[in-house]
Amino acid sequence: MPRCARCGNTLSFGSSYVPSTAPTANGPVSGLVANFDNEGYITEMDSLTSDLNAVQEAWERPEEYFDICYNCGSEDIYWE
To answer: What single DSSP character describes residue 15?
Structure first.
């Protein structure tokens, strides 16, 4: 399960591999955001990109992709 070392968030994370589509307009921290359950499995994923290969890889290997806290923006994420 991912956890933010700064704020303790375990629910929503973004991916630095997929840049935000609107970084200067208070858009999301990433073009790929996922919510996780208490077991560390993705429950839903929102993609603002057309790169379906990246989405599929993120679904299969979330620990390699989701590295930004959607709550506070920290990149200090660890996986339990």
So the answer is: E
